[in-house]
């Protein structure tokens, strides 16, 4: 249970306070990782992941405050505060990723670094203790105005208050380390900051706090993926390159962007009464359904009769909205303009950071807004306003008295696009309410649905299944498509034809089985015996590989160039010694090095002798040609053992 309140110009969300025996001040020890994070929280984590960690351990995080600037959520950080543990999590308001961890009450938080602990009520984090635990570092910065000395490590900083009578020791920012006053005392840490160490910035309190930034996302990350919106046409996901048009079927959606996080039936349609183009009886009953993609920040609404995508809902996940933390922020971009050059101008783009006044500058004025409210009990944040344009509607939260609002939800509707085709091109106030109403009225498409893959030759692609699909999956795909396109005979014939071809092909394969070489090789590679052998080998560093190769190449050259009547006894002895040496360099264990080295020598000599006797004819002439060839083959196997065996 959570309750919400406002403190000054900021809003807070806090749990109902409850004190458990296991959550006493300082009783929980958090692992400190400089430049990475503390406990389960790491720099760069999305705010939704942080809430997930909190929900997983409610006994530890039993009092949580969420603070944000309610007049402009993009201006200041979103802060999750743990007053019982004395630290903040500061999230960048735009990307909603953790950029800074502030420990403002070190006496409340016990931290573990390596095998040592620091902080908490029992272990004071003094300057001497910090310096002894984290080691030498460069001189810090003394802030005369605040009377605080900051000590910096990569991704970590400590602030120490300096009493007025001892400010002389910090003259011109220089101080002897570790810092001790003339009376033998040492200052105690008043604040600790953890931040991304890759930026090479010194981050502390005050102005230095703004230097903390979020680390870059990993290549290919779907978080905050840029989604290009073509009004009335489609969505384009830039990372994966997927296109999601209006009219897409559920199978198309699964194929392009994967399985939804949830499927929610739309039981009632409360806006259908406003739909001017819907001639059906006005009823709230509805068979439509949503595909919810919470981890990507959007929903897709499908028509219950045609099973086609007719509406997209993109969420910005701003605090102060009832759906905050239900979705990850969707980083959409709407380009408005006829030509590509005009569309790419900065003034013609609408993104999650575009406020309502800027939206009206791009799209023009619109009519009055529809008001959405759920009452103060269900939604303590107040009402939102829905403004409609052609092909798009905006849900806007009024964060300030001058309506300088921020877009909260963007809605795209295929039905709105079709409803507005017959409208005159001149915009007036009488048309705008109709456009807005049509965007929320779920008007069914009475036209006969045509199977979009009717001309695809491959029967598997036509049904939208893989070649490894089972008979149940094949039959299920056929039944689903038959129900969806039953009103169009050519579509039905195409679906039936593809189904029959696949069934006949499966029957033929069972009657005339073929050996699948690729499958057999894959089965052998996945067997336990082969996996056990492969696990015994590991690719070393390039420098080590070159060193072993040169060593055995020199031994091979000596064996060929300087044969003796007794055979290459000395060279073989040197190869055994080299094998022991190189294996020990990698394993660092004498017993296993001796065991692996002896086994490698015996195995390589037996294999070399066998190959020379049974397989390879000796092509080196001379009285000791057989021994020389056997030695060369043994050197190759010993090199493999020395370099790759683990």
Automatic annotation (TrEMBL):
It holds the Pfam family PHAF1. The keyword Transmembrane helix applies. The keyword Transmembrane helix applies. The chain crosses the membrane at residues 403-424, 544-562, 568-584, 591-616, 628-645. Keywords: Membrane, Transmembrane, Transmembrane helix. Belongs to the PHAF1 family. This is (rape) hypothetical protein. It comes from Brassica napus. The lineage of its organism: Eukaryota, Viridiplantae, Streptophyta, Embryophyta, Tracheophyta.
